[in-house]
Amino acid sequence: MPRTAFFVSGRTGITAEMLGHSLISQFDDEVSFRRITLPYIDTPEKVEAALAQIREQARTDGCKPVVFSTFINEETRARFFIPEAVTLDMFETFIKPLEEELGVQSSHTAGRAHGIANFEEYQTRLDAVNYSMSHDDGGISRNLSDADIILIGVSRAGKTPTCLYLALQYGIKAANYPITPEDFAAHTLPRALMPLRNKLFGISISPERLAQIRHARKPDSQYASAEICKREVEEAELLMRQAGIPFLNTTSLSIEELATTIMHRTGMKRRVY
Amino acid sequence: MPRTAFFVSGRTGITAEMLGHSLISQFDDEVSFRRITLPYIDTPEKVEAALAQIREQARTDGCKPVVFSTFINEETRARFFIPEAVTLDMFETFIKPLEEELGVQSSHTAGRAHGIANFEEYQTRLDAVNYSMSHDDGGISRNLSDADIILIGVSRAGKTPTCLYLALQYGIKAANYPITPEDFAAHTLPRALMPLRNKLFGISISPERLAQIRHARKPDSQYASAEICKREVEEAELLMRQAGIPFLNTTSLSIEELATTIMHRTGMKRRVY
């Protein structure tokens, strides 16, 4: 049975997408959803066009689309509660109980969640991204002590995307530094990291998965061989254990799971929302 | 009046945070919220500890905390509806109408939204991040034609974070390429970009904001001077207009707004959710 989910918003649509995605992924086993995002629906003309598209989809599919919406404006929001669709609007449902408990009216201002409202937060985020970019893969040892956290692990374990996620989403200055065969030979963590031990967090991975990733990058290289991958992972984990560095295994964790677990375990606080 | 918002989840808590943040930012003018995320509440002990923390906070604040929760498990979810707090749970509210319309039961599986369920999607995301990292700031011209999009603009206009966001969140291979004084002198876009004109999207910025950002990076340099910034922005916009390249001004847009607007205007589709 084909179904369509619409994510509709007067602004970016990011909240509607995330809310809707969380909900429909609960039905993944039984229902296959086509996903359509309609962002920046902020004029009467765009409202009409969006409604026409939803109605047309209902006819094509032969069943009601699910519309996840986040309209602050009550009139616009009301327009999307149509018999041809099942509409679930976050504000419709949750703003009232919040207004009652808080004893104040909501501001009805669109774009608060993902706008540039707070310039200082925006700058914090930019600084974190710039920092993480320039401290990727041990790029610059200079200012490494400015890092909020330094992820360590073997090459291709998944340090970089996790750092970027921490920087972009949380405003955390996240550096990363490789553990290499030289370090295994010396039986010690890289010298540059010694004074920063309390900022280190390890990223490990299964040797099989590592070989697969390295193979995609450098086919049939020794670097990607099963033996080398196995040895590197074992030695890196040994070094981290000996040094008392906490580490996570990326093999079965998403970037979001890695990032949130690191935030949680280290007690770091978000700098931005 | 001090208030506390809790974001509570059996998994990452990302959906609860976004939902809650969207809602409470509607009350920003009147209520100042302390935000506490309690992720990975996945054992009876952690449930008890979280409930104790919420109750304690209610006593300290002298008013009810708002609890934004996303529990798939009905029993756990029910535990958080306590008289000492106002609890808003996304699944409690929205799963029922969805089950009714779809005619199937939800899977009640936690971690669907931000887990690694789909390995192929994860790989797409990693590839996009790697691509965008190695094609930052005109870094490699090689394989530039593999880009889904190439952001262009003067140095420090905000290309890099937007590219990284597109890669991480949407799995889009986003390169970026600077427009420099050399290009202004030649009255033309960089030669490497000529054959890729249909992939180009411009990022512009107000000269004042650009000077501020450049000044933070290289204090009192000519590069950061008001005159140079004004001239560069004017010339870059002129080049983009002449070449028919669409562009956005980052001065009043957040990274999310830039990214979603670019997706929307170009008609690119998310590769990952």
UniProtKB/TrEMBL annotation, chains A, B:
It catalyses: [pyruvate, water dikinase]-phosphate + phosphate + H(+) = [pyruvate, water dikinase] + diphosphate; [pyruvate, water dikinase] + ADP = [pyruvate, water dikinase]-phosphate + AMP + H(+). It is an enzyme of class 2 (transferase). InterPro entries: Kinase-pyrophosphorylase, PSRP. Its EC number is 2.7.11.33, 2.7.4.28. ADP binds at G153, V154, S155, R156, A157, G158, K159, T160. Keywords: Kinase, Nucleotide-binding, Serine/threonine-protein kinase, Transferase. Pfam families: Kinase-PPPase. Bifunctional serine/threonine kinase and phosphorylase involved in the regulation of the phosphoenolpyruvate synthase (PEPS) by catalyzing its phosphorylation/dephosphorylation. NCBIfam families: PRK05339.1. Belongs to the pyruvate, phosphate/water dikinase regulatory protein family. PSRP subfamily. This is Putative phosphoenolpyruvate synthase regulatory protein.
